[in-house]
Amino acid sequence: MIDNIHVDYDGLIPNNVGLNGDDRVKKALETWHPGYIDWWMDMGPEGFQNALVYLRTAVSVDTGGWARFDYVRMPEYKWGILLAPKVEGRTVPFGASKGEAAWQEVPGEHRAMLRRLIVIQGDTEPASVEQQRHLGKTAPSLYDMRNLFQVNVEEGRHLWAMVYLLHKYFGKDGREEAEELLRRRAGDKDTPRMLGAFNEETPDWLSFFLFTFFTDRDGKMQLEALAQSGFDPLSRTCRFMLTEEAHHMFVGETGVGRIVQRTCEAMATAGIDDPSDVERVRGLGVIDLPTIQKKANLHFSLTLDLFGSEVSTNAANAFHAGIKGRYREDKLDDDHTLEHATYPVLRFIDGKITSADVPALSGLNMRLRDDYVTDCNRGVERWNRVIAKSGIDFKVRLPSVAFNRQIGEFKGLHIDVEGRMLSPEEWASRRDDMLPSADDRAFIEHLMTRAVTEPAKFAGWIAPPRVGIDNRPGDFEYVKVAG
Ligand SMILES: [Fe+2]
Ligand SMILES: [Fe+2]
Predict the structure, then answer these.
(1) pLDDT tens, residue by residue, 37-63
(2) Which residues are found with C-beta within 5 Å of the ion, ligand 2?
(3) Mean pLDDT in residue range 85-110
(4) Of 417, 142, 456, 394, whose CA–CA distance to 263 is shortest?
(5) Which of 268, 328, 414, 425 has the greatest count of CB atoms below 10 A from its CB?
(6) Which ligand has an atom closest to residue 223 CA?
(7) Contact by Cβ (8 Å): 121, 222
């Protein structure tokens, strides 16, 4: 009998999936494990593999208390396989098979599609660890350093989650895919990660916070859609990953919020009320608001590409098959098959961004992206409240969804942040007002040259958090750097 709530901690791989009674999968994962550790040592947080980090580890899937906090060396982190508890009597919630008992095995006709979705999700997890591996060396505090490493080990665990599904349900090709997940590298020109945003650099801490705000939030949307899946093991895996994911977005939202706060405080103290007086603001050793806006424009547009084309037969097929649902499908009140419904999609017609109704099944990527933009705007509003409170006349705004796109309807077009079409010459002359310039990057780089490693101390460009992690006091030593 498998105990779904409590985790078996005795073996090499903590789990609540009954690995001890499943020799084939246990052996496959134990064979995969050394390669994973090699990857972590090679591509994980550089310079801190020996440090003791105050990390949370998932020890249960009980929503009341699933994590334990303790000092851990990251290579010794217990990366477990945890599925949310099974819901008795669960049925396929949408698509052509709606109402059938949820599948406990992979339906043969959907095997290729399921494998592809699991591999794509799995590929993003180690990618972000690779992208963030140098950031420990410039952490603005031990608190932030710990949060970075927490995100990193959990992305590692999410890779385990997907690899488990591949080993358990996809036989030989699942094993091969699991190997490939360790072979690809973010930004590598020969063996890149599968999706564009996961091959970009995360060169500095503002990028890190914006990445966790925008790109981890895409992760949340994808996991929410997969958590609805009729394939029950995928649904249960994703539901548990979402509990961890919430912290990643917290790190991003509060990180940007604290940078904004510090900038506003420094401006107030210096008597600067014009946010466009970039040189003077930078002279205070803080990041000017227009640069934060430009970086947000970049991360938002890169992340929108992850949703794929606005009109997509793949998305339609995955929904029809009962494999990938909509955001919070179970809370939506309609027929959940969408055979006759339509959805308004933004398209580029005759030089204009135009809304056009398409069959709702084809518009599912757009729909998920719309839900995403709504979710992003809530966080942006919280940043704007910080700015408004300080009396500075500035608002962070998400750019047009057509801005700076590489995938879908607006791919390769010169469209500005307001959604207006530009000539190539206009784009060239305005580009650096809308996206980070070489100068902006150089400024941020010079601001972040070393890690702040004294407890309770913070770099001058970011405000301290309001509360500590796990209710620890302000001077808590979140990372013992020397190990
Ligand atoms: Fe993740
Ligand atoms: Fe994440």
Answers:
(1) 999 999 999 999 999 999 999 888 887
(2) 216, 219, 245, 248
(3) 97
(4) 394
(5) 414
(6) 1
(7) yes
C-alpha 86, offset from chain centre: 25
pLDDT in tens, 411-443: 999 999 999 999 999 999 999 999 999 999 999
121 alpha carbon, closest ligand: 1
With the C-alpha atoms ordered 151, 153, 157, 162, is the resulting torsion angle positive or negative? positive
What residues contact residue 242 under an 8 Å CB cut-off, 6+ apart? 220, 223, 224, 227
Q: Compute, in angstroms, the gap from residue 298 CA to the centroid of ligand 2.
A: 19
pLDDT tens, position by position, 361-402:
999 999 999 999 999 999 999 999 999 999 999 999 999 999
Least Cα distance to 408 among 350, 458, 366, 362 occurs for 366
Q: Is 391 exposed, middle or buried (0-12, 13-18, 19+ CB in 10 A)?
A: exposed
Q: In angstroms, what is the span from residue 413 Cα to ligand 1's centroid?
A: 31
pTM comes to 0.97
Strands across the sheet with 479-480, in order? 67-73, 52-58, 479-480
C-alpha distances out from residue 110 to 172, 222, 324, Å: 17, 18, 11
> Please, which residues have CB less than 5 A from ligand 1, an ion?
125, 155, 158
Q: How many residues does the chain have?
A: 483
- Whole-number Å distance, alpha carbon 335 to ligand 2 midpoint, is 32
Q: 351: which 2 tokens?
A: 């030089």
Instruction: Tell how far the Cα of 270 is from the centroid of ligand 2, in angstroms.
Output: 37
